[in-house]
Amino acid sequence: MNSTTTSAPGVVDVIGVGAGFTGLYLAHRLTTAGWTFAGFEAGPSVGGTWFWNTYPGARCDVESIYYSYSFDETLQQEWTWSQRFAPQAEILRYIEHVADRFDLRKHFTFDTRVVGATWNEADRLWDVHLDSGETRRSRYLISGAGGLSTPKDFDVPGLANFTGLQVSTSRWNISLDDLAGKRVAVIGTGSSGVQAIPLIAQVAEHVTVFQRTPNYVMPARNSELSPEQVESIKVDYPAIREECRHSLGGIPERPVTDKAFDVSDEERLRRYEAAYELSGFNGVGAEFADLITDIDANRTASEFIHDKIREIVEDPATAELLVPKYHPLGAKRSCFGTDYYETFNRPNVSLVSLRDEPIETMTANAIVTSSDTYEVDAVVLAIGFDAFTGPLYGLGLTGASGQKLQDAWRDGVRTYLGMMTADFPNFFMVAGPQSPALASNVVMSIEQAVDWIADLIEHARDSGATLIEATAEGQNDWVDITEETVAPTLYATTDSWYRGSNVEGKPNTFMGYVGGVGKYRRMCTEIAKRGYPGVAIDGEALSRNLGPIHQEIS
Ligand code: NAP
């Protein structure tokens, strides 16, 4: 069927938010299926995360051959990645290539932010308010605003006093040369800080790293891809993609079934050494099946990394501050760096532990902690994001009962499959909270979610329906499933942006589904096959609990 459902003048079938990996695939998938689509993007061009995060060293830590679209065989055959972990500029070039190749830019209005969206029950349409002052209407509203796109506020007292250069990794608007010869403070040691610090240290007169919580940083082991490696991937691309679709994290994984204490201490150490030579999410944290569920097993892997840090960092006091002793390996997002710990051996790099000396204020040219004053010319903020809910609340959604999304989620996020939420009909989230996006190769998760949502709205269109909404029961089931899935893991016990604990006052609920992208995909497929239990379509819903379906699926 190729006709649209929404024929009123000025109304489109779908409004999509964002022109990153999600928005572009949404535009392609939906317009190909005959829907009218209008996308709005706050930035001046395509790219999303990869448009904004241009800080030195920015690159993906999921290998590019996997962190790319799989929906078109010709696309994946004609694009060639230069490195295992492509830098930001190359990822952005790829996204631009996709936009041009499929002629997708014409579906978007750039430099335009969605600032409000109100459900109109009588017309069964979304009124979508733009920062241009205009209002556009659509049957469906789909967020591709991303999970890590709203920078976290930095509310250090005295920040406004600082008159030197101030830049954030997530809105980088200077060149690395601007930091040359300067005394630079970097605040934050998550994935962004870890990537930026070694490069800033190469040009700055001095770098002072202000660290609150030390992280596990494994060597990224990036390398150029040889023509032979590229060829071997391309020959097998469809099979590789299929393996990713049914994996845990959306990348090919080493099959690991034994537990850390199934082997001798010597054997365990030998295996950790071998895993340390691998890069990325198949490394040490994936060496045994129980590392993310058993704290004692995890300790063996954590302590292995602690020892690596002590081997690399020459000054024992600095090494001890860098050792991540406040959380288990993998329970909070691990980082993959290049020369990160080695950078602390440079004479122009020093470390301040904010746990020992918190920042008290800032002056025109200094950061003042409880024990010292650090004069600096520039401050780099690498303090992270208001993950998942930040971008969604930024849309200013008002649902069917007149409630704002932030009020509906006042006590914590509640979704159906991480894609819908009750009382917000015809609204969908791609890579949303309680989906596997948090702990997966997100491009693969995006494609799966877009396809599932497209199938659902096509299913409704085929029966002449115009109203799709998660039921309260369906949503409760999914919340229970996500909580039951995370409960036996160490994620459940660790403060991190995964749980919202990096943002003051945010309810502490785990914001992902950690049962694996393969299981999630099969669950979503099964739900569609069974007629979408937990979803009311034109007010009709199947009364079938999701829990037993989740249990049946391997
Ligand atoms: P992040 O992981 O949340 O790290 C933020 C850092 O800033 C933490 O060290 C945090 O300390 C510190 N911080 C926050 N507020 C602070 C404050 N008020 N005072 C002092 N320190 C403060 O953020 P991110 O590094 O931007 O990374 C976020 C996520 O983006 C990553 O986990 C990853 O998923 C994604 N990312 C991926 C890549 C990649 O693919 N390589 C690169 C960049 C980002 P605490 O830990 O104590 O809160």
What does this structure look like?
This protein has 554 residues and is α/β, with parallel strands linked by helices. It has two domains: 11-150 and 387-552, FAD/NAD(P)-binding domain; 153-215 and 336-383, FAD/NAD(P)-binding domain (3-Layer(bba) Sandwich). It has helices at residues 21-32, 49-52, 73-78, 88-101, 191-203, 227-235, 237-245, 265-277, 295-312, 316-322, 340-343, 389-393, 405-408, 442-462, 472-486, 517-529, 546-552, and strands at residues 11-17, 37-40, 108-109, 114-120, 125-130, 135-143, 165-168, 183-187, 206-211, 217-219, 335-337, 349-353, 359-362, 366-369, 373-375, 378-381, 397-398, 427-429, 468-470, 535-537. Strands 1, 2, 3, 4, 5, 6, 17 and 18 form an eight-stranded mixed β-sheet that branches. Strands 7-16-8-9-12 form a five-stranded parallel β-sheet, covered by helices on one side. A three-stranded antiparallel β-sheet has the order 13-14-15, with no helix packed on it. A hairpin with a 4-residue loop joins strand 5 (125-130) and strand 6 (135-143). Helix 1 packs parallel to helix 14 and helix 14 runs parallel beside helix 16. The longest helix is centred in the last third of the chain and has 21 residues, at 442-462. It is globular. The protein starts with 10 loop residues before the first strand and ends with a helix. The structure holds NADP nicotinamide-adenine-dinucleotide phosphate. The site of NADP nicotinamide-adenine-dinucleotide phosphate has 22 residues, from helix 5.
